[in-house]
From TrEMBL:
Organism per entry: Turnera subulata
Domain of life: Eukaryota
Residue ranges of coiled coil: none
Protein name per Swiss-Prot or TrEMBL: Caffeoyl-CoA O-methyltransferase
Keyword Methyltransferase: yes
GO MF: O-methyltransferase activity; S-adenosylmethionine-dependent methyltransferase activity
């Protein structure tokens, strides 16, 4: 399987609720870097001269584009206005079970927010494009993104879902059950660094096709090192 790389970033802020940015970028060595996240990601993109697109409703209601990719062949950037983003959200093909999960857990979110429906769709699409069978998620919360991925995996596929919060995991497990994908999800309760280290110690290095992180930004580097040992593709 081809190797892809990650641009470390935060994948936690649904753009329609807060600042958000998605970057899909082909690097000079032909690997692909994809990142989604908030304003930190935008600043990070600027520093790296990467192109990205963003929507922002909270601060001033205007969309903005960072088109600073001269070094990379002046690739075209896509700008989404909030109105267009609302249109996309209302037309995204969100499975009914994911819509239920999103609505049930809206009150629980607080500072821990789910990925948005289009971000989940992107994850599912990556799984399908890669033909991934074995995946890892760091940062499950109540399971929105993991359920989207589990639904996209083949029947024999598996997702190792790492989360430190037991209460959130109970909700996630209920939805895996309802969606009929429990057999594909290996729930791991604990700190991701410990869980990933134990997977490596168990001889599972290089045995995963895709890993995605949606946890704390400051921990990304640590996860990145561990996930690099476990999976061939990452987001
Ligand atoms: C932004 S939420 C994830 C949202 C989730 N991807 C979804 O779509 O619903 C981040 C989650 O990462 C978990 N988390 C943060 N640091 C962690 C760590 N070191 N180990 C395991 N889980 C962690 C938090 O408890 C939280 O539930």
């Amino acid at each position: 399987m081809a190797s892809h790389t990650v641009l470390p970033g935060r994948c936690a802020l649904p753009p329609y609720q807060n600042g958000g940015v998605t970057v899909i970028h082909r690097r000079r060595d032909s690997t692909v870097a994809i990142s989604t996240g908030g304003y930190g990601s935008i600043r990070s993109c600027k520093r790296r001269n990467l192109s990205c697109f963003s929507t922002d409703k909270i601060t001033n209601g205007t969309a903005f584009v960072i088109a600073n990719d001269e070094k990379y062949g002046n690739k075209q950037n896509i700008s989404l206005t909030p109105r267009l983003y609302d249109y996309i959200l209302s037309n995204v093909r969100e499975p009914e079970i994911l819509r239920q999960l999103r609505e049930e857990t809206a009150a629980m979110r607080g500072s821990q927010m789910q990925v948005s429906p289009d971000q989940a769709q992107l994850l599912a699409m990556i799984v399908q494009i890669l033909g991934a069978r074995r995946c890892i998620e760091v940062g499950v919360f109540t399971g929105y993104s993991s359920l989207a991925v589990a639904l996209a995996l083949p029947e024999s596929g598996c997702l190792v879902a790492c989360e430190r919060d037991a209460r959130s995991l109970e909700v996630a497990k209920k939805y895996y059950e309802q969606a009929g994908v429990s057999h594909k999800v290996i729930v791991k309760h604990g700190l991701a660094a410990d869980i990933l280290t134990s997977l490596i110690e168990n001889g599972e290095a290089c045995s995963y096709d895709f890993a995605f992180v949606d946890a704390e930004k400051r921990m990304n580097q640590e996860y990145f090192e561990l996930l690099l040992k476990l999976a061939s593709s990452m987001l």
